[in-house]
Amino acid sequence: MNAERNTVLDGWMKEHGYSSNSLAEAVNAAVGDLTGRVGGLDGSSVRDWKAGRVRWPKSATRVALEKVTGLPATALGFVPRGRVSSAPAPPEEDPVKRRCFLTAGSAVAAAAVAPTFTAPHRIGTSDVERLQGRFGEIIASDHRYGGRLGIEQKAAALADEALALQISGSASQRVRAYLYGCAAAFRSSAMWAAIDGRRYDDAVRHMREAQALAELAADPAIKFRIWSHAGTLYRHLGHPAEATAANDVARSLSLTRRDPLFASLGLARQAAIHGEARNATATRRSVEQAQDAMDRADPGAYRPVWMTSFYDQAELDSLALSAYLALGEYEMAESHAHRCLAALRPHMQRSKAIATTRLACAQLGQGDLEPAVLTAMSVPAAHHPRVVGMLRDFGTEIHNIAPNSPISRTWDQYVRDTWKESV
User: How far is residue 36's CA from residue 39's CA, in Å, rounded to a whole number?
Assistant: First the structure.
């Protein structure tokens, strides 16, 4: 009997921008988180799942896959051993009950090794520093991969961990404010991962929780990050008025008057919003003001890690590139694309993929088909949802401009040979 193809998993992967190799990589990392030893899957393993040759992965792999996707294995089209796919599936275990069971199991294990007496626990700065170290890991994952559900879930879980620490013992008011700040930072990272992965409903949910936590923390830097991200969220949703209003909240914080670099980021994101709204005059003015503010900023001033790790001249040019591309001013867009790529730090792999794809679109907009295709063929990764979407649009436009031409056939062959299922 021929194996029945797992079209559900195949569809999920296409929707979320995963190739067979990138999903295998994500599951291997999740196996490592669960067991302490990284998994040994490769692209052929995932292709076996999609082809139906493996209908029920091993338990550790299955749990890791559920962690990456946020879905039970049966909802991904897998069939438990001993049941045919046409038979009704047993009721899914209530995830709340499952979490309670796992939590209870952890509590029992902890109790087994606990001392016979307990002293009052004092939460201190070392606990905050530990969480801040984990925040650095989230930021690094975002720069490398961006948009993945696993990053969103890990950030949300760490936000919950920071809140759980609040009730685990006594602490000074200052430490409690730091913990709320950590929780808000993690939740804002979950929000950003959801925005970047085009999971906008989830992003809105994370945004609301992050905003409430930021008020408890009374941290102007994290407030700026959350409201600035909210502006980006509304921009991607195609709501320029709401995007401007949210970004204005970030820009109105006193932090932007004290530190020109925060002012610069707010203005650069405002330029991208003006670009989407097709306001050319406002776009150019905001780009110029963002550059002026950056030039005035003290490079040695203290700033939070999320700021120092990404906002620099390359990011300003990336936002200007996005703005001018939306306006249809392709020569200006290409100029900013080259500046962005020349200044990008090596760890900004996600940003490099996005900027390279936008450069290809800017070249295509000027009618430079061959350079545009060569640029698009140099994009370093196509598992990022935004990159996947832009490359699909790029391919559609190539066929609109030059249907059945050698250049369109070159692009089609490249997609088949290189990206396979992604684009």
Answer: 9
What does the alpha-carbon distance between residue 69 and residue 283 come to, in Å, rounded to a whole number? Answer: 38
Exposed (0-12), middle (13-18) or buried (19+): which is 216, by Cβ within 10 Å? middle
pLDDT for 77: 87
**Furthest-apart CA atoms within the chain: distance in Å:** 78
Give residue-wise pLDDT tens across range 144-166: 667 778 888 888 888 888 888 87
- Model pTM score: 0.67
pLDDT band at 87 (very low <50, low <70, confident <90, very high): very low
Dihedral angle sign, alpha carbons of residues 191, 195, 197, 202: positive
Average pLDDT over residues 255-278: 96
* DSSP annotation string for 59-82: HHHHHHHHHHHSS-GGGGT---TT
- Cα angle 351, 355, 357 (rounded to 5 degrees) comes to 120
Rg (CA), the chain: 23
**CA–CA separation, 204 and 96 (whole Å):** 22
| 256 has a pLDDT exceeding 90 | yes
